[in-house]
Amino acid sequence: MFRAVLTLLLGAVFGLGFAASARAEAGGKVLRVLAWPGYADADVVKAFEQRYQVKVEVTLVDSDEALWALMHGKDAPSFDVLAANTAEIRRYMQANLLAPLDLSRLPNTKKQLPRFQALDSIEGLTSAGKVYAIPFTYSSMGLIYDRKQIPVAPRSMRELWNPRYRGKVLDFNSAQHNFSFTALALGYPHPFQLNAAQMRTIAHKLIDLRRNLLTYYTLPEEATAFFIQHKVALMFGNYGTQQVELLRRAGADVGYVIPDEGALAWLDCWSITRSASDRPLALAWINYMLEPGVSALLTQRQGLANTLSAPVDNSGSAHIVWIGPVEDIQRREELWARIVSGDRSEQF
Amino acid sequence: MLRPALTFKLSVLLACIGVLASGATGYYAYRANRTMLVNEAEHSLLTSTELLGQRFAASIDDVAADALVLATMPSSASVAQTNDGVSASPGRERLAQVYSSFMLHHREYLQIRLITRQHYGLEVIRFDRDADGLVRVEGRKLQEKGQFAYVFDTFAFAPGRIYTSPISVNHEYGTHAAEGKPTLRIGTPVADFNGSVVGVVVIDIDLAGMLKRLQSDLPSDYQVYLANEWGDFLVHPDASKTFGFDRGRRVLMQDSFSVTKPLFEQTQSEVLVNGLAHPRQASGQVLAFVRRPFGGSEGSRFIVLGLAKPLGDVLSGANLLGNRIIRMVLIFSGLSVLLAILFARALTKPLHQLAYAATHLFAEHAMHTLPLKRTDEIGVLARCFDRLRREIKAQMDALHAKQRELVHLATHDVLTGLPNRMLFMQKLESAIEQASRRDQGLAVLFVDLDRFKQINDQFGHSVGDKVLAAVALRLEQVLCAGDVIARLGGDEFIVLIEGPRVAQAAPGIASRIMDSLNETLLMDGHSMTVGASIGISQFPDDSGTAEELLLNADAAMYAAKSGGRCGYLRYQDVLDARRHEQAGFARARAGEGAAEGREAEPTA
Q: In chain B, which among 167-186 make CB contacts under 8 A with chain A?
């Protein structure tokens, strides 16, 4: 009141104007993106926001479980676009959470490598002739080892259990992959379809692994910190070459190897949720992600392969197991929570 | 008359200056007061924040002291060394009672555990908390915790040192009330007699509960912010912004409040910001942030605590003062308007007086109001003006006198002082006009002196002139004051007589003039008689115009003069005589005609 009166008084004499209020935030449209670290860096997001005059809200996930939990959150805002691996995409598709994609609105898919344009050949991306996801980046989950402590590259996942490295092993905190790669290590033919007896065996095997670990990690940066600080010798590289890049940048002399029994590999794709409020905007986001400049950042910054250019060190002979949908995620997660928290093997 | 424009303009100008001055003073007083209040609030907030930080650190130190007490219990090392948690052990049970009493007395402890180095970091004694109270976890339910940083990091510590974990959300399975809660873990090694670490004591603290207790005596309008060393919000008035890292979307303090950046870069230990000076950074708030190291010297763990107070609450005092200032400004503005009007009037009043005097330059009353006695510039101006006016008046008076003299000279005969012909004709014309309006008559007497030429020839011009003046004097004596006497030139005078019954009175007046002029004049020792002949013409009988009246009077005078010494004649008499003559002539002609005996012509 006082200010108003005074401004009036002074304004009448001086002719002061009110300063124009700051420009209102443009648009008001919000695109909610569920992505993994490194997929939507702040500068990339900003460029998109400026181009389309929208606001982008990026939520980062560090595990498939977290992604699933967010997609099913009760009070969480509904998401428009998400990035998930092929197995997860198939799971979301079956749960009727995804919307089919209009490829004509994604001109950048024409620039992708032929193997990623052949969407029918990749399991889990199409259904009833409709496309539900576009490949974006991929990586294998091999072993990362310290070349100083382990001069000869390990050849098997079983090295993780090697008591020589007790307290110097890192594992990724994820139910599905741990069960799957242990199954591979044990030589099971169907690592994604385990029976009860196999599950039990693997649970015990995972407790053994836990006892050999330094700790579990969730984010690549976290893993790098542990690796350097605690002189880790060996780790399950959930983020594959992405982590190798990070470690080397942090000064570690590390090697990356695909074990003989094979390595799990994920192919992350972009999809649009059925609840997306603005599908054209969501499509624009996916198309933007496939721009050479944006996709190349994946390789430059994260050491991840993109779908537009073939990787330089293509280990074609390596045994890659594309991850698929697992028999009972809930069961794996229940067991995993107890394993991680320290339940003893007698409890299983 | 001066228009009121100057007074008005001056009043408005002075009033504006007055209003502006009081308004500006009020406004700056208000501004200064606000800034002062906000600064004061900032400092008191900073003190509160520092205090809160100190209490937080002190509380952590208390927890650390508890952990140390438990770790140094005489039986701790042996229990840690010899136990697998399952087999019976009286020593462990005695120790467990101590643990349970610690849990009972510290409501913010979520868990207290003794963890052995053996069995992959197995818990030997563990107390949890749930909704009903304490829960002792025993036997096969005890878990191996060697894979957690709070265990393997604490193992690496020397006895007596304190490990402080990052603040995180507890995701461990089966932890009862602790599950999903923001937790801070304090650990310390348990050493045997040789000093080698055989186990650890870990206390889990309910961070939210502890903070709630710490801030319980803060005013209710304070809002608390807490961030870990990376800036992730752990406490925020908007709960959805806390523990963002646990949900995959980090919400950082240095992003929300960019002033806090130096705290995380460790270049500053406290920052203040307020919504008054930085409305973008702290909209509507006054904020104080303090970086507070905690957990002893191990590592560089710190928290950033922030307290916010609504700017509105801080400024409520200023608004009160502001209202008073408004009132004061309004009163002073009113006063200044009043004073401005009075002053403007006082200033322009002498101007009005001068202007009035200038427009009424020769009116004496206009001069009395001039402020001649003032000693200032206006007084000088008034005096100058008065002097100027006097000079002009004197010159104007002289001019008027000269003019009057000239007019008199133009209309009067110099010798006798009588009106001249021109003036007489004017008077005659106006008299005719007046007489015809009143339906009255008037008479013009043409007086011609009989013997003036001889007197002039005989005694000289100077005597002649004196005679003429004497004649004029006599005429004036004979006639009434209302009659007009004029000298036409030479020895001719003319008299105008007005009034009722003038026709009857004229011959009498003529005769009086005759008598007066026939009296002997004594001039320079010479005795003489002037004598006069007079012709009388009358209005309206003889003519309606001044010129004709004069001509007719002249003609009558001429007839009188040529008719011998009869003195005066009326023009009517002249006409009668002429008619009589013509009649006589006609009779004579008629006689001649009859003598010839022819015919008689009809008479007209």
A: 172-175
Residue B311 · residue B38 · CB < 8 Å: yes
Mean pLDDT of A24-52: 84
The two beta strands, B163-164 and A305-306, are: unpaired
Residue B31, SS3?
helix
Q: How far apart are CA B527 and CA A190, in angstroms?
A: 185
* Residue A285 burial by Cβ neighbours in a 10 Å radius (0-12, 13-18, 19+): buried
Query: Is the backbone peptide bond immediately before B540 cis, with ω within 30 degrees of 0?
Result: yes
> Within an 8 Å CB–CB cutoff, is residue B104 touching chain A?
no
Average pLDDT over all residues of chain A: 86
State the Cα angle at A104 between A99 and A105, rounded to 5°. Answer: 65
A70-79, B106-115, B159-168, B443-452: least confidently modelled range = A70-79
Q: In whole angstroms, how far apart are CA B232 and each of A138, B255, B550?
A: 30, 10, 133
pLDDT score recorded for residue A99 = 93
Beta strands in A201-314 (DSSP E): 215-217, 234-236, 254-257, 263-273, 305-306
Each residue's pLDDT tens digit, A175-208: 989 999 999 999 999 999 999 999 999 999 999 9
Domains and CATH numbers, chain A: 30-137+267-313 (3.40.190.10), 143-257+323-347 (3.40.190.10)
- Topology, domain B412-591: Alpha-Beta Plaits (3.30.70)
| pLDDT tens figures, B211-235 | 888 888 888 889 999 998 889 998 8
Residue found under tokens 């004017």: B426
* pLDDT for res B305: 93
Evaluate if residue B1 carries a pLDDT over 60: no
For residue B521, the tally of other CB atoms under 10 A from its CB is: 17
Band (pLDDT 50/70/90 cuts) for residue B85 is confident
What integer pLDDT is reported at residue B299 of this predicted model?
Answer: 58
**Section A246-258 average pLDDT:** 92
Sheet holding A234-236, edge to edge: A215-217, A169-172, A234-236, A143-146, A254-257
pLDDT at B566: 61
**Alpha-carbon span B277 to B366, nearest angstrom:** 65
Q: What is the dihedral of CA B467, B472, B475, B477, to 10 degrees?
A: -100
Taking 70 as the threshold, does the pLDDT of residue A312 lie above it? no
Helices B207-214 and B5-71, axial angle in degrees (round to 10): 130
**B472 near B492, Cβ under 8 Å?**
no
Can you tell me the distance from the alpha carbon of B449 to that of B474, in angstroms, rounded to the nearest whole number? Answer: 13
pLDDT digits (tens, 9 = 90+) for B521-549: 888 888 888 888 899 998 888 888 889 99
**Strand, helix or coil at B444?**
strand
- Contact criterion met (CB < 8 Å) for B149 and A215: yes
How many residues appear in chain B? 604
ipTM exceeds 0.95, yes or no: no
Q: How far is B179 from chain A (nearest CA, A)?
A: 11
- Measured CA to CA, the distance from residue A133 to residue A99 in angstroms comes to 9
Q: What are phi and psi of B445, to 5 degrees?
A: -110, 120
- Is B148 within 8 Å of chain A by CB? yes
Topology of domain B44-312, per CATH?
Beta-Lactamase (3.30.450)
Distance CA B239, CA B243 (A): 9
Only one residue has tokens 């004598």, namely B531
Contact (CB<8Å) A70/B247? yes
Alpha-carbon distance A10 to nearest alpha carbon in chain B (angstroms):
7
Does residue B491 have an active-site annotation?
A: yes
Amino acid at B425: M
d(CA B478, CA A244): 156
Q: Which helix (H) or strand (E) holds B70?
A: helix B5-71
Q: What is chain B's mean pLDDT, rounded?
A: 87
Q: Within chain B, how many helices (H) and strands (E) appear?
A: 17, 19
